[in-house]
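Data availability (excerpt). The following record was deposited with the supplementary files.
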Amino acid sequence: MKKVSLKIMSILLVLTLVFTGGAISVSASDVTANAAVQVQEAAESPSGFMKFLYNTLNVVCEALVSTICKIYPNPKNWQKLDDYNSDEVGFMAGRENYQTEAKEGNKWSLGYSSRSIVPADINEGKYYLGRDLTVRIAKGVYDDNRIRVAVIDDNSGEGAVVIGSIDSLGVTSTDVRSIRKAVMEWCEANGKKVASINIMATHSHSALDTQGVATEFFKKLVGNFWANLVGSTDELPGLEAAAEFKEFFIAESITAVKEAFGNMEDGELYFAEVDTSEVMHDKRDLIAKEDLQKTPVLHFVPAAADSEGTYIADISCHPTSFSASNGLVGSDYIYYLDKYIKETTGDNTVMIAGALGQVSRDIEYSTEGMTEYEEMGAGAKFLGEAFAKIILAADFGEALEPVLNATHKEIFIEPENSILVLACEIRLVNNKVYYDGLLNKKFYMPTEIGYLEFGNEVALALFPGELYPEVFLGNDITGGVNWDGTEWQYDSLKDEVEGIDTYAVSLANDALGYAVTDNNFAFMGHIIGEEIADEVLSIGKHIASFYVSNYLEMIEEMK
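Predicted structure:
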């Protein structure tokens, strides 16, 4: 019944938008052409009528929002695309040379640091949880939000690689590059060479809002129209705490990276691939457990017996154990993963988010004998400890050769879905957008992809969006299910670099919404059901192929 009601609501929304579409400044020929395509699809598909309605909704909504974006005043710090300068914004290309074997004198070094990013006045009710576009005020703290950092080097002289992970829904490229620029300046002043600084998000849905997604959409929509118009960069009255929190977590992140550099020591680096599918599943029931991305784990063992080791785990499972209504800050299962490994072994943990898609927990547990408060965090606790036990039971084999590679490629996205542009324009989030043209203005969002390789055996492929497993592992794992009748054109990227096991990382150095295979893009997917994903917060239908094609170009250039 719920699905039926949602479908009726969506049809009404289509009709409403169609009848209000006369005010939309959009080419009639474009709408006619799009409509013709949708009619053709409707004729060819058993569910064609519903697809036609949903696809029409996509066309009309995009026309409406893109028109608003062209009329809405740009923030003062937006620039023309011709004025973009990679060095000034903090882009890092990675290491200069690709190494295929260890040089004489190469050895692994790693430094770790972790700092809380929860403000001291968290209980005053002025901060937001970054769960979604719904305004959610943080009422207190259940566990913690932290920045965890590992700085790794093979001492080849090519420069260290930083892997930082923040308990958050996502971190914008603007804030990542602010952290980078401060760290690069510090490294230069202190005689340290750094080639790659990467800041990821754990994607915890109960963490504080590091992006701005939950900070009063409509207030910003109205208030920042006038602020942008007069060139003001001040935060709107009543929202100063959110801006202060950004400054706070950026400052704590910078400090954590510096501390990690100061904590570097020599040791050995090991790798294991572990199967965590027993405790997670694809909520769409589209991808079988055995086809989900395995969890790659790096384990640094320091030479000094009394020193702490570090695990770096790339886990493809949503941290969504806490109810949206409890209002308490937490990092979800990441807190308990970290805690269990620390208490069991004394070692540290950095968790990064893999090919998340709609992958969530699938674990049975009992809350018998627990208080109501304990029950709130029970799912996160059991899941975190389950991941920790699987990781600690792994066979890490022989040490990796001290060979480290890192490369990054800057890409410019021309959004097909203007909702994200509008979010930037009203300063809901602070991603920098560049424009070209005046009357027929086009928008571009600069971001990046990357590749980190360890020991010429294992690598992490870095993507700025929330990647679906099938984007990286190929269409075969979906059983041919699709929305538009076409096929995803890419095979698995896991073995794209010969001899290297490669794993996807989501939300790396940016947070740009969902990236599902082009053939499964559906604007209102959660309403549609039928194993389709919700792409309202995606850059558009072709973002996954854009990421992958640029990734392949980057790999070819590297090789």
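Summary of structural features: The CA atoms of residues 313 and 351 lie 5 Å apart.
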